[in-house]
Amino acid sequence: MYDHIGLHVKDLAASSRFYGAVLAPLGLVAESSGSGFGPAGAPALWLYQGSKGGGKNKAGTHVAFRAASRGAVDRFHAEGLKAGGRDNGAPGLRIEYSPTYYAAFLIDPDGNNVEAVCIEER
Predict the structure, then answer these.
(1) Which sign does the torsion angle of CA 89, 85, 56, 98 carry?
(2) What 3-state DSSP class applies to 48?
(3) Global pTM?
(4) 89: which of 37, 58, 105, 118 fits an S-S bond (Cβ 3.0–4.6 Å)?
(5) Is the distance from CB of 44 to CB of 5 less than 8 angstroms?
(6) Does residue 31 have a pLDDT over 50?
């Protein structure tokens, strides 16, 4: 269901230390930047410095849902707009993340950044 979750934190260093400490007993580790946590090589919790602001990468919580296909990402975006979401990134490749990272972003009615992502080889 989930691909990854992002939390905006007041103090990135303090929050990174906290999550590093509490997740280690669960077998989860920090990735090289210290702001991503999860199984080795597959971070799924990301911490971001900043506060809720409602713009790209500044919305409240960020939740990314896994999509089975690029078409599902397209439908997620279209249906979200019809249901009252605001566009925060049209469906398309995000090569800055990976060459096959296809995603769309919406701001939900409460200001959270929701994403659908499909990472498949084309």
Answers:
(1) negative
(2) strand
(3) 0.75
(4) 105
(5) yes
(6) yes
